[in-house]
Amino acid sequence: MAAKIQIPEELKADLPQTKWGKILSATPIIMTVIATALAGLASSEMTRAQYARSLAAQQQSKAGDQWGYFQAKKLRAAMQHSTLDLLQGLGQMQPTSPGKFAGQPPAIQAALENGRVPDAPALALDPKIKAALDAVESTRSEGEAATLLATITPEQLQASLVAAKDRALSFDAMVSPISSAIDKLEKDQPSPQFIAAHLRYHAARYEAESRLNQAIANIYELLVRKSNLLAERHHKRSGRFFFGMLAAQLAVIIATFAIAARKRNFLWSVAAVAGAGAVAFSAYVFLYL
Questions:
Q1: What pTM did the predictor assign?
Q2: Closest to 157 measured CA to CA, from 134, 130, 135
Q3: Which of 4, 7, 22, 284 has the CA that lies 20 to 30 A from 53?
């Protein structure tokens, strides 16, 4: 009867690993790579959130400038109207008689006789942007405005802002020659009727310019809200990537403990304990500091 062959334990350790053993050995490396990638993503998202917050602050400052122009021009228009009403009430000025400035070019005649300014070019807005503007102007809930803004890209808002600024520049190009001509005529013909016509025209001009600045300011306000929404989104994504990184690190520790227990390797055990300590310390900092 043949004797049973026994394989020494030293040789068994050198035998090829099973499929599960190979997966177990590779797990710490794979999870370390994943944890490193998640850490990079968390840092990247936080940087984007900070950039979006900074951009929102810059846009809010520009919106404030436009609101300042709006208020200043509304005030100038009101002052022109008040001066005209006061002078007419005191009987020092009479309404402009029809045909008084018939010898002037049509645009200047219309401006002096009726206080008419050229119509500003129409501002074609995307329906989504118009709906968001209506929501902001009517002071609807933040949630409703955020829902509308979620369907609008920053590029679309920037395009609308450029269009609104171009519209203001076009209006300025139309009224500048008229204003210059009227200022020149005022020096040559300082009659009460001309002064009244001058005040009426500039009141209408300032009123029109204030509305153009208001349109620009409103679009800036949408940009501010959009940037803040993007900052919140990136901040949340950063937090989720961070928790994913912690989960990957935990998987590294568990796999390391498993390998240490399987191979009885002292260095594996030390590494596992160090990893567990790092996670515990991070948890303490996160919760209590």
A1: 0.75
A2: 130
A3: 284
In this structure, is residue 99 part of a structural domain? Answer: yes
The count of residues in the chain is 289
Q: Which pLDDT does position 72 carry in this prediction?
A: 93
Euclidean distance between CA atoms 249 and 185, whole angstroms: 80
pLDDT band with cut points at 50, 70 and 90 for residue 14: very low
Residue 178 lies in a domain: yes
Nearest-angstrom CA–CA distance, 147 and 131: 11
CB atoms within 10 A of CB 165: 15
pLDDT band at 11; cut points 50, 70, 90: very low
- Residue 220 covered by a domain: yes
Distance of CA 201 to the CA centre of its chain: 37
Q: Dmax of the chain from CA atoms? A: 140
List Cα–Cα distances, 267 to 9, 10, 154, 259, 273, in angstroms. 21, 20, 53, 11, 10
Query: Would residue 252 be called left, alpha or beta, if left means φ above 0 and alpha means ψ between -120 and 50 degrees?
Result: alpha
Count of the separate structural domains present in the chain: 1
Is the CB of residue 70 less than 8 Å from the CB of residue 217?
yes
Sorted by sequence, the CB contacts under 8 Å of residue 204 that are 6+ apart come out as 77, 115, 116, 117
Q: Is 264 left (phi over 0), alpha (psi -120 to 50) or beta?
A: left
Note down the domain range covering 144. 32-237
E-assigned strand segments in 187-248: none
Instruction: Please tell me whether residue 101 adopts helix, strand or coil conformation.
Output: coil
DSSP designation for 16 = P
DSSP 8-state symbol, 55: H
Q: Per the domain annotation, does 280 fall within a domain?
A: no
Distance CA 257, CA 63 (A): 57
